[in-house]
Amino acid sequence: MALPKHIKVKESISELKALLKKASPLIAPRIRMIIEIKKNESTGISKIALAYLVGVDPNSVQTWRTLYLNKGIEAILIHNKTGFRPSVFTKEEHASIEKKLKDPKNGLRGYVELLNWIENEFKKQIKYNTLLKYSIKNFGSKVKVARKSHIKKDEDAVDAFKKTSVKSAERPLKIKKKNTKK
C-alpha cells in the first residue's frame, strides 16, 4: 500500500475558508479538499481518505491534487465548464406548445401530430425523440393517455341524453329472484 502524498499548502485555512464562501458549487469540493490537505499537512492523507472526507470520487481528488501541485490555487479555482445546451424552442414557442397541449379541443392524438403541427407552425425540423423528451420534461405529457371525452362530442346531444336518462333512472328496477331449494 502506497504512503499518503505530502503536499505543502501555501494558503492559510482562513484564506481557504474565505475562498470557499465565494466559490460556486463546482469549485467548492476542490477548496474543501485543499482545506483537508492543509489540516493533515504534517501526517499526509491518502486520496481515498481525502475523497471520503470531501465526498467526491478518488480519481477527482488525484486530478485536483496534481493540478494544485503543478499550477497552484489559481488552477483549482478555474472550471472549464462550457454551460448548458440552449433550448430547442424559444419562450414564445414554448408557450404556444403548452397552450396547444392543454387545450382539450386540440385534436392531437400523439407526438407525431404535435411534431407535424410544430413543423407547420414554426417551420422547424426537430427530431421525434427531442420533442418527446422536451414534452415530458416541460409539460408532464405522456405517450398514451385516455381522453375525458371525444373531441367532436356534441354538447347538445349530451344534454338531451342526460334529460332522457334521468327519467329512466327514476323507474324502479324489477329484480328476479332465483328459486333456491332447501
What's this model, at a glance?
The chain is mainly α and 182 residues long. The chain is 55% helix and 0% strand.
Helix content bin: 40-55%
Radius of gyration: 33 Å
Rounded to the nearest angstrom, the distance between the terminal CA atoms is 88 Å
Total E-strand runs: 0
State the shape: elongated
- Given the structure, what is the number of helices? 9
How large a portion of the residues is in β-strands, by DSSP E? Answer: under 5%
Identify low-pLDDT runs: none
Mean pLDDT: 84
N-to-C SSE string, H for helix and E for strand: HHHHHHHHH
Query: In this structure, how is the largest beta sheet organized?
Result: none
* Structural class determined from secondary elements: mainly alpha
